[in-house]
Amino acid sequence: MTDTARTSRKEVIRETKRTIILEAALRIFERDGLEAASMRAIGNAAGYTAAAIYFHFPSKEAIYEELLSRSLDRLIAAVGRASDHPSTSAQRLEAAALAFFDFYAREPRDLDLGFYLFRGGVQPRGLSRDADAVLNDKLRQSLAPVAKAARELGATPRIVQSTVADIFAHAVGLLLSEHTGRMKLFGGHARKLMQAQIGRIVHELGGRT
Fold this sequence. Notes:
about 0% strand; Tetracycline Repressor, domain 2; mainly alpha; 2 domains; globular; Arc Repressor Mutant, subunit A; 10 helices
């Protein structure tokens, strides 16, 4: 076996172990929340010792950061794909905004992960200043296609900012209402309400689908 092949095999094994740890950690975070979770519990769930977990991740916060970073990467890719094909700026804005909503509607665990909702309720949370800065930047990147389309429609920087905030706030509010079953109390349909709000935003920006 060549040195290159050995290195490649080691990298595959390392990534496989990291994936097993991450999947186990997600189950523990779901069950216990970030604060109550422990490296020992994550190790037990993954079938490794706590020492083996520390070889791959320095802390449970680092594991959470990696899980959230990967989730946001998937979100960025999903929104980017959706906004690539429409022919008009209005259609691109609609597609990107709805893709943001649909991603979390399909993946409620990612919603819980992104908002630290595992057994914690809705509270201001974070990991560290540096980690939060990187993760928040990725969240902004996920809505960059919305901002770009709004600029193409002639929106000023202030209107672009408020448009992105509007999309984000409505999506998260509707998703949480749907996720917790509260939407059923009012007989509403979260995705249709999101589509209606996106349509109003596009209309206000002077776009035509």
